[in-house]
């Protein structure tokens, strides 16, 4: 399937653009916390193109002024529904660090200054619509901010459990997860005047329970008993697979949050079709006077090869939002996109990224999972101890794809900047080493980033990450292959401080490991942020292991969190002052 591009065909964001299309009104108006960037990497753009594809008239308003009616009214009231998203990043994560300090920069705002995305953007935008349009058409929430807050959830920024977001916002519906099929169904149902409450992948509020759905702990029970919140989250997490999952019903102050079963995943040909929409791969000219958006430096010439991740790191929300089953695009469609780049006037021959949530999960999946759905009862594809034997890791298709992209005339370099699971490389005895050599020789430059996060077995267990021996084995393979290729390239490491279960002594162990095993001094580490939709956030709030309900240590003091970070990033002087705790520093290198 070809990749199509039509000049000057952004979805409209002004009345003038509507008139140029011969439209007096819109069927759907989409609101987002980002500037309007027409790219397959931007959820609101994908939703707009999906609705356009089924014949609806769609407009997009990026980062509306919430203190006036100028932006929210500039295209009028839609005929079918409003769609509201906080943006590509959760607004609270975007606006605040793990230490709850305000971030000055925003890569999705023109000019880069963080002055356009309100806190709890989904709630603010919904209120903005209600304020200026009385008795309006349905308001539908979507995007990661809403998706991960669809049931009772822990909110780090207020340190309390909050109600399902539909109750806070008073919106009418929500589509959750990637929601491609759900948004298509919603558009068609509302166009045909049908009741959308039967749509899979949709949430709504009801006066009555749906008795055939799973009845989960009420909001009040979660407030009263932390164990009930663990039970709620486990049921929520285990019912995200469209093959077998059931609907959920939660009582909230005498009414009910109804979560219909998940909508189906897209097939390969459908993934190709969505990737082939006429994205302009640029920011809408409406925002140009305010400056450039930094995110375009990364996403403009990047290729998304697949959706989903079965890595299931406990601190990551991808499993709950994108799902644990890999959905791939075809090689032909990906190559068509790469070839299309070479026809664009500002393309310099460099593809910024070829990947997905985890780059080296492209091209294979567990056959059992595809037919029966993801395993339940705490059985994971990969955990701290092993890779499931039914998951046949195979990098061969990925290797060939990267070679084919490199062979496209006009492509000078195709980077793989997305994260890779190094444990999958070492587990693939047939093609893992070949894949890593392909990466080293052609798809990185100077360094490769990996994410061990920690090296203490107890902390890794709570993170859901592989043991440190796998990292040692991978590093040796990486160093050996670089030597064979005559290259001097390095590994850089993502590390996390103050994750539930992590104490200062564990950070000293990590420091010693990086010194003596990795032969380096980490320059950066991030303090853990508990985000909705993750097991780690449940651990943080309850101070319990959610799988055993046994008590665990959780660092909540901001100063001691910062100290955990300082331990691992400290230069020689700091480490020496702690010599009694971590041993000699003679092997430390910068």
Keywords:
nine-stranded mixed β-sheet, 590 residues, alpha/beta, 22 strands, globular
Please tell me about this protein's structure:
- There is one protein chain.
- This protein is α/β, with parallel strands linked by helices and 590 residues long.
- The strands form seven sheets. The protein has a nine-stranded mixed β-sheet with strand order 3-1-4-5-8-9-12-11-10, sandwiched between helices. A three-stranded parallel β-sheet has the order 20-21-22.
- The longest helix has 17 residues, at 468-484.
- The model is unreliable at 573-590 (pLDDT under 50).
Beta-strand share of residues? 5-15%
**Structural category:** alpha/beta
Shape: globular
Radius of gyration: 24 Å
Average pLDDT, rounded to a whole number, is 93
Low-confidence stretches: 573-590
Number of helices: 24
Q: Span between N and C termini?
A: 49 Å
How is the secondary structure organized here?
Elements lengths: L14 H6 L7 E5 L4 E2 L4 H11 L4 E5 L18 E5 L5 H5 L25 H12 L6 E4 L1 H4 L5 E3 L4 E3 L2 H5 L3 E3 L4 H12 L10 E5 L7 E3 L2 H6 L1 H13 L9 E5 L2 E5 L8 H8 L6 E2 L12 H4 L2 E3 L1 E2 L10 H4 L5 E2 L2 H11 L8 E2 L1 E3 L11 H6 L23 H11 L6 E2 L7 H6 L4 H12 L3 E7 L3 H7 L4 H17 L5 E8 L6 H13 L9 E2 L7 H8 L15 H12 L2 H6 L1 H4 L8
Parallel strand pairs: 1-3, 1-4, 4-5, 5-8, 10-11, 14-18, 17-19, 20-21, 21-22
Antiparallel strand pairs: 2-13, 6-7, 8-9, 9-12, 11-12, 15-16
